[in-house]
Amino acid sequence: MISYPLASTSWDEAELHAIQQVTNSGMYMIGMHVRLFEEAFAEYMGSSYAVMVNSGSSANLLAVAALFYRSHKPFQIHQHEEVIVPAVSWSTTYFPLYQYGMKLKFVDIDLNTLNYDLNALEQAISDKTRLVVCANLLGNPNDFGAIQAMIGNRDIVMIEDNCESMGALYNHKQAGTFGLMGTYSTFFSHHISTMEGGLIVTDDEELYHILLSLRSHGWTRNLPKHNLVTGNKSDNAFEESFRFVLPGYNVRPLEMSGAVGIEQLKKLPAFLKARRDNALYFQDKFHDHPCFMIQQEIGQSSWFGFSLVLKPGTGISRGDVIAELEAHQIECRPIVAGNFTKNEVVRWFQYEIQDTLKNADWVDQHGLFVGNHHYPIQPQINQLYECLKPFAKCLT
Predict the structure, then answer these.
(1) What is the maximum alpha-carbon separation in the chain?
(2) pLDDT at residue 393, rounded to an integer
(3) The pLDDT value given to residue 233
(4) What is the mean pLDDT of residues 195-200?
(5) Cα–Cα distances in Å, from 227 out to 212, 223, 237?
(6) Does this model's pTM top 0.90?
(7) pLDDT value at 207 more than 80
(8) pLDDT tens-digit readout, 260-271
(9) pLDDT tens-digit profile of 223-256?
(10) How does pLDDT run across 303-362, given as a tens digit for each residue?
(11) How confident is the model at residue 75 (pLDDT cuts 50, 70, 90)?
(12) What's the pLDDT at 24?
């Protein structure tokens, strides 16, 4: 038995009843419940539009793809153009960029925030840069004021991978809404859970219509009659049913996931409060720990999990820390994918590295994170603290 798990179910009778309603209807594929969830999610985030898909990874894929099918600049992207990415993020932050032929420039992270090293980012932005991807790590929003000042009036698009940071705020504005598009995940371990699922939000109507088409085979069936992909659709539903205009995918969510999303979104404010209350307790216990650095909050984090990065000079092995945690049934994982450039898959990429990735390297070798939850976990945080006490005693 795991005494301090990474994730736990946030469902109760409301979600089970929502699923039962869908099964009673006999309509399992995308329909009314998905549409209602999208409308509620867009309203919650303060965005004009939301498009639900079958995963956060698919959300990233469609967001990148949509930029290639814009009808005009300044927001249209082309193959071989340069995109800046953080060196620490999840695999599917990067894969769609490679798959659409972009050149990736990896930039180091800040050892305290785990988001972009702002000095390194400023040096990386050049006349070749067309896209900046901001991945908000472990619930922590980037410093969007600084990043937007760097971009200024240049012809550079910004999008957000906000799959780990639903509900995070920067200057009272939702993370995921600072870029042209923002993506979210509703996987089991994330802030709300719809089995599998993801969403893209945007205020751009043309991108919204492109996303609707790309989600469903690239056809026109789900587009409004007057749309910014085809102009006007025919009134002949038979002809429009299998009319393909974009090289799309089938990444549609199930109707059950939409129904569960409606119920989960109602609970999100309470979930976030519990996560932030847990974080206050965690910060109080670990803020001056002799062995570990913890994540420095930017704005208001939604605290996906709690990072622990060994301080330089401790001489402590991360392997020993992991072994101690496992002995006490405390689950942990690497900090996302660590320094992603160390993965063999990058041999397929067209990429370069801005200066060095020394902080990403340190996190890659000396960092881990433990879970946070939508309910109080003070006893588990105490257990974690007591478990790590022997390492602190070795330094005194």
Answers:
(1) 79
(2) 79
(3) 95
(4) 96
(5) 11, 7, 16
(6) yes
(7) yes
(8) 999 999 999 999
(9) 999 999 999 999 999 999 999 999 999 999 999 9
(10) 999 999 999 999 999 999 999 999 999 999 999 999 999 999 999 999 999 999 999 999
(11) confident
(12) 96
Per-residue H/E/C for the chain: CCCECCCCCCCCHHHHHHHHHHHHHCCCCCCHHHHHHHHHHHHHHCCCEEEEECCHHHHHHHHHHHHHCCCCCCCCCCCCCEEEEECECCHHHHHHHHHCCCEEEEECECCCCCCECHHHHHHHCCCCEEEEEEECHHHCCCCHHHHHHHHCCCCCEEEEECCCCCCCEECCEECCCCCCEEEEECCCCCCCCCCCCEEEEECCHHHHHHHHHHHECCECCCCCCEECCCEECCCCHHHHHCCECCCCCECCCCHHHHHHHHHHHHHHHHHHHHHHHHHHHHHHHHCCCCCEECCCCCCECCCCEEEEEECCCCCCCHHHHHHHHHHCCECCECCCCCEHHHCHHHHHCCEEECCCCHHHHHHHHHEEEEECCCCCCHHHHHHHHHHHHHHHHHCC
pLDDT number for residue 396: 59
Domains in the chain: ranges and CATH: 13-261 (3.40.640.10), 268-394 (3.90.1150.10)
Q: Whole-number mean pLDDT of the chain?
A: 97
- Catalytic-residue membership of 190: yes
Which backbone phi and psi does 81 adopt, to 5 degrees?
Answer: -75, 160
Q: Which of 324, 306, 307, 343 is nearest to 394 (CA)?
A: 324
Q: Which of 33, 190, 191, 374 is catalytic?
A: 190
Taking residues 171-187, report their average pLDDT.
98
The CA distances from residue 137 to 160, 221, 243, 246, 344, in Å, are 11, 36, 40, 32, 22
One-letter amino acid at 263 equals E
CB within 8 A of 274, min separation 6: which ones?
Answer: 373, 374, 375, 376
- The CA-atom distances, in angstroms, between 172 and each of 44, 144, 167, 299, 353 are 13, 12, 10, 8, 33
What is the length of the chain? 396
